[in-house]
Design goal:
Elements lengths: L2 E4 L10 E6 L6 E2 L4 E6 L4 E5 L4 E6 L6 E2 L4 E6 L3 H9 L29 H9 L18 H9 L31 H16 L2 E9 L1 H18 L6 H14 L6 E3 L2 E3 L6 E3 L1 E3 L2 E3 L2 E2 L7 H17 L4 H4 L4 E5 L18 E5 L3 E7 L2 E15 L5 H16 L2 H5 L2
Length: about 400
């Protein structure tokens, strides 16, 4: 009896998904739990495994099609005992394999072991037409990571640059000046829609301040090694900013609230979103109950988020919800920016590059590690006074970290 392969049940907030890339063709033998296809939602890429050993009889939905939860996307024909014996005795020559409907499966350039690659790595391998067998994996068990693919690309011999045209004589425009078009990914389209939504539905305003991070840097320098030995994770800056933000949110609960129609909904918990760059775009996984988490716990969670984002392994649950967001453009060199809130949240904190700058202190000019902070907020619910005081609270907590311990 044929077995139907269906789209997994999607979260309540996700209406549909897009067929991203098939890893098997009709006629291919498949094993139970082997990944058949990647399905992209507005937040994550889901892998759809085979429910049973057999042969992929039919692909119902081609790459690029929109599908709903529990919709049939393929049909698998279980192997009979005779067929299993025949297949074990005779090598597969590929004869008799039917074509995929509408869109052929993309080549991943691999050696037939693409099922072991993460969605992010598969996409890079496919886009750059790389043979995965030529890449040395540094992950657990020799698994190929995104960094391994990037290193392989960097080691490729580059083509010689064409000679420069003679001085003062502009070169005529010759050769092909082609353009190409490709659809947005679900994640990129969702990001675009939500940013426009935030601009159109909220009264956005941004207030700025600067913070002296000398005390935080001294603490990190003093306890860095012992912290890592004790907790098995490095002591970064983000845990200080999360803790400082929680302290400020407890004092100014409106910043942790949101508007629902004519009501203001207050949160009695602190789920902090941390913006993380991934190969598919910006994602915001959530640290649940950040007020109850230790510095080590926060650092461990953030480190895990970074690894999962690179490998495309973040789950729907990890990306859903959040009462306040922190984004760090400083890791890319941003000196100052105005972040946009993540609806329905009412505020977002922007971190920036730490820069040694001259600062007047007690009548003297000193060189200090300074960072600009930006708080973008919905002016419909948060007044300027609360926004400024909120940012000052974060500044004071970071410039004197003992305040975080004593909660003063």
């Amino acid at each position: 009896m044929s077995i139907e392969v269906k789209v997994p049940i999607l979260p309540e907030s996700v209406a549909d998904a897009t067929m991203l890339s098939w890893h098997k063709r009709p006629g291919d033998q498949v094993r139970r739990d082997e990944n058949l296809v990647d399905i992209e939602t507005e937040k994550v890429v889901l892998e759809v495994p085979s429910p049973q050993d057999g042969v992929l009889k039919q692909v119902v939905k081609a790459e690029g099609e929109t599908v709903l939860a529990q919709e049939v996307i393929a049909v698998i024909e279980p192997l009979t005992q005779d067929a299993q014996s025949d297949q074990a005795a005779e090598p597969d020559t590929g004869e008799g394999i039917s074509e995929m409907p509408e869109t052929p499966a993309k080549s991943n350039g691999g050696d037939g072991s693409s099922a072991s690659l993460s969605p992010a790595v598969r996409r890079m391998v496919s886009e750059h037409d790389i043979n995965a067998s030529q890449i040395e994996g540094t992950g657990k068990g020799g698994r190929i990571l995104k960094e391994d693919v990037q290193k392989h690309l960097e080691q490729r011999p580059s083509a010689e640059a064409p000679p420069l045209p003679s001085a003062a004589v502009p070169s005529p425009i010759t050769g092909d000046r082609a353009e190409h078009r490709e659809p947005m990914s679900r994640l990129r389209a969702t990001i675009a829609n939500r940013l426009v939504q935030a601009q159109q539905t909220a009264a956005l305003l941004t207030t700025f301040n600067e913070v002296d991070l000398q005390a935080v840097m001294d603490l990190r320098r003093k306890y860095k090694e012992s912290f890592e030995q004790r907790h098995g994770t490095r002591l970064g800056f983000m845990s200080f900013f999360v803790k400082a933000s929680v302290e400020a949110l407890t004092r100014f609960p409106l910043v942790n609230a949101y508007i629902d129609g004519n009501d203001i909904v207050y949160h009695d918990y602190y789920d902090i979103g941390i913006a993380v760059a991934s190969p598919r775009g910006l994602v915001v996984p959530i640290i649940r109950n950040a007020d109850q988490n230790t510095f080590a716990g926060i650092e461990s969670v953030i480190s895990s988020f970074g690894e999962k984002a690179r490998d495309g392994r973040l789950t729907m649950e990890e990306l859903s919800g959040g009462t306040f967001t922190i984004t760090n453009g400083g890791i890319f060199g941003s000196l100052v920016s105005t972040p946009i809130i993540n609806p329905p949240q009412s505020a977002i904190l922007g971190m920036h590059k730490i820069q040694q700058r001259p600062v007047a202190e007690n009548g003297e000019v000193k060189i200090k590690p300074m960072m600009y902070l930006a708080l973008s907020y919905d002016h419909r619910i948060i007044d300027g006074r609360e926004a400024v005081q909120f940012l000052v609270t974060i500044k004071e907590a970071l410039e004197d970290p003992t305040r975080l311990l004593l909660q003063v």
